[in-house]
Every structure is written in structure tokens, then in C-alpha cells.
Design goal:
Layout lengths: L1 H6 L16 H4 L3 H4 L4 H8 L11 H10 L6 H12 L9 H12 L9 H15 L9 H9 L4 H4 L5
Helix pairs in contact: 4-6, 6-9
């Protein structure tokens, strides 16, 4: 992990990799993130940057690696998946978050975009299945409840870095 992290730094900064921050643009060059539809959200969620630039410290990088590793528990994976899918960072998945999630998963191109009616039906189905308290949003515990009934979740929510 240290080797991968330090290779993202300019040569002159590699000897101080433990105290350096890798810019988001460099993190996104990782082959495993390059094609990931959630690449920007992953950087946002794992970055501890005070500047809001989504750069990562070595500790941030390790956190990201550990969450996506095979040894991370389903609870850890679902917690971070929820944070990644919560595009507005308000602690719930509302209709706007769900629409962005669906668009990320289906692609942004015109040929793959759902019609308004299809999108509305899909979001309605997701909420009917997941929104236990019927408040129109999915909170973390509701999300984890749905995930607990999906044994394939952990394997589908991994990237190997």
C-alpha cells in the first residue's frame, strides 16, 4: 500500500510520503478508480483534506484500501457505500441521491438514460423496498437492513487496489 501511495507522488516528495498528500487527480489515475462511476465520491468520502480538494494522506489511502478489501465486514462496506451514495452528504438517501445513483450505474449517455417515467418508477420501487419508516428517504439503518438481505453486496462492493 505504501509503495502504491508513494508512486502517486512526484519523485522529490516520495521520501516523505507519510506526511504528503496525493492530489485527487493522481488518485483518479489508479486503474481501479479510472472507470469507477463513483470515483469522485470515493475520493470525497475518504479524503480528510481541510481544503476540500479531496486529496488523500497515506492514512486516507489505507482507509480506502481497507474498506474495499475482502476482509472488511459487511457493516463497514455498507456504511461507506451509504456515504458514497449520499451525494449531498445530508445523512439520508433522498430522491435526488437515488436519481444520481441510478444515473451513475446506468451511464450518463443518452442511449442508456432512463426516461422520466422509468426513473420515477425505479425510485418508487427502491423506496417501497427500503424506506421502512415511510419518510421518503433511506437512512443508514434502513440501507444496512436492505443490504443485510443481499448476500452478494460485499462482493459487488469491492475494488482490488
Amino acid at each position: 500500500a505504501y509503495k502504491r501511495f508513494s508512486e502517486l507522488l512526484p519523485k522529490e516528495e516520495r521520501e516523505n510520503a507519510c506526511s504528503a498528500r496525493v492530489p485527487k487527480s493522481q488518485i483518479l489515475t489508479l486503474p481501479e478508480l479510472r472507470a469507477n462511476p463513483f470515483q469522485h465520491r470515493i475520493c470525497r468520502v475518504f479524503s480528510t483534506s481541510y481544503d476540500g480538494d479531496d486529496s488523500m494522506s497515506f492514512e486516507d489511502f489505507l482507509d480506502m484500501l481497507s474498506v474495499f478489501s475482502d476482509s472488511a465486514t459487511s457493516d463497514i462496506k455498507s456504511h461507506y457505500a451509504f456515504r458514497i451514495f449520499d451525494f449531498d452528504d445530508d445523512g439520508t438517501l433522498d430522491r435526488k441521491d437515488l436519481e444520481k445513483l441510478v444515473n451513475c450505474l446506468t451511464g450518463q449517455g443518452e442511449e442508456s438514460r432512463l426516461s422520466n417515467a422509468e426513473m420515477e418508477q425505479l425510485i418508487q420501487n427502491i423506496l417501497e423496498e427500503s424506506d421502512i419508516d415511510k419518510d421518503g428517504t433511506i437512512n443508514l439503518s434502513e440501507f444496512q437492513h436492505v443490504i443485510s438481505r443481499s448476500p452478494d453486496f460485499a462482493s459487488s462492493f469491492k475494488i482490488v487496489l
